[in-house]
Sequence to fold (590 residues):
Amino acid sequence: MNHFNSIRIIFVCFIFLLTIPTMALAQLNVVTTTEDIASIVREVGGDLVTVKSIAKGYQDPHVIEAKPSYMLKVNRADLLIYQGLELEVGWLPMLIQGGRNKKVFPGQLGHLDVSEAITPLDVPIGELDRSMGDVHPSGNPHYHLNPHNGLLMADSIADRLSLLDPANADAYQSNLDDFSKRLENKIREWTARMEKFQNLNVITYHATWNYLLDFLAIESIGTIENRPGIPPSGKHLSELATMMKQTNTRVILQANFFEKEFSDLLAGKTQGEVVVLPAYAGGTREAKDYLALFDVLINKLEKTFGKHLSVVNGESR
Amino acid sequence: MSEFLTFMGAPIAACILLTLVYTYFGCHVLKREIIFIDLSLAQLAALGTTVAFYMHLELDSPGSFALSLLFIVAGAAFFASTRNLSASIPQEAVIGIVYVVGASVALLIASQMPHGAEHLKTLLNGSILWIDWQGVLLIFCVILIVGMVHRITGKKLIEQSRTYKNPLGQNSPSWTSDFLFYITLGLVIVFSVRTAGVFLIFTFLIVPAVCAALFSQSITTQFFIGSILGVVASITGLVLSYHLDQPTGATLVCTFGVAFLASLLLSHLRSSG
Fold:
């Protein structure tokens, strides 16, 4: 009897050992272009997925230097998720080709463009004229900066994970519910804290912040780059300065991967303040994931706007 | 190893092909003292692509290549002419002027387009890592054409490059042979700058030729020494880039830099010892 028991224990242990490698293999291998998508995949996929992001949070995903490991990542991926709306157009198509992995080719189940889940802002109306400058033909690609879009992104990611791994669909659903609940609570908190700043005006460096400002009901009255990616002309800067004075605008927002010199120049002429913000999860040490990114953003904006709101009110009194 | 070859096979083949053809041109360029000719021609090619982009032509479409070639032809004709127009200005100055004006015109056009500057930057940076076998074949065909042209004019060209600075009567290069030299180099640049990038092409052109010039005065010997050095440095750079996971172009350029330092040291030891 004793003998039989020990055989049984060994047998159970053996079976257990056998399942360890298969469990590891069963993990879905997800590659994302940005840390924000990676962060949401981590929330929704939990232990069932491994996820790696190509662009780091402090890098501008418009421009990424090619490294061999990116091709290896794409080559081994079961699922490639990207932000779309031409954000990664400069390098992702070549990377997909270079990765030689049919699973993540366009049209396959392992290829997910999250922008299909959201409604883009700044979509040009009518015929597209490239000479107009600030037009992304399919809309502004920085949509992750509205936390409501985070909910939609998580939905779409959970759907796709369930399609690829139907056995764990329930787990993905419950992870999704949990994440959505936490995000919704946070959205209520952020909205409440920022309510008093609604209809304030700001200047932004690049159209990066339009979704965040849309969420906070804050108005962007101009961008320092009058055409994305092109340094401003002197005339444009002086027009902005006049506009800032007329509208009593004091705050200039910019992402931490852009040069600060033009924002500083404008701030110096208008008694304004440049607020440098991380635009992606991982952009600073505190903004370590998608929720933490917004905590950092809201903390900084609340402090800055609070200071300037009191100045503005003090002057008008 | 097999994984390394899956990903790096095409880049290795491309680097070897480009090293060989650019070392050949490099030896001539060095003798003629027109070191920055490739930057200037690459900038003209980029200007052509930028104009094409502005006219809504797709990148890498035949129309876009045609415009680049058109700018290169104009540049080649200009460079071939200025040499005869005025003997008092060095050719290097003309090359420099074309480079800065070309770059600025491209920037002015790019400033009319969203993310135009980034477009310009990717045009000039490129990445050899993304090249596939089809791209290698294209480069091979271009090199074949250029090689055939030079096969016919080669002997005379070597003589001309050797005496470029002090031409002796009949050896003085004609407008046609100068034009042919610029246009063939331009052709290789048009078809390689998008994949290799300006820095890497400059490296391929100059470093092997300079290293070889430390050891020999004959263009033919320089070409052989430079080719061997270039191929070894290319493969070393690609292996390093893969194993250290660093951006490929920059790693290659640095490897060539180290090769240059080593050659300098070696030639110094040789001459003093």
Remarks:
- The domain at 2-272 of chain B is CATH 1.10.3470.10 (ABC transporter involved in vitamin B12 uptake, BtuC).
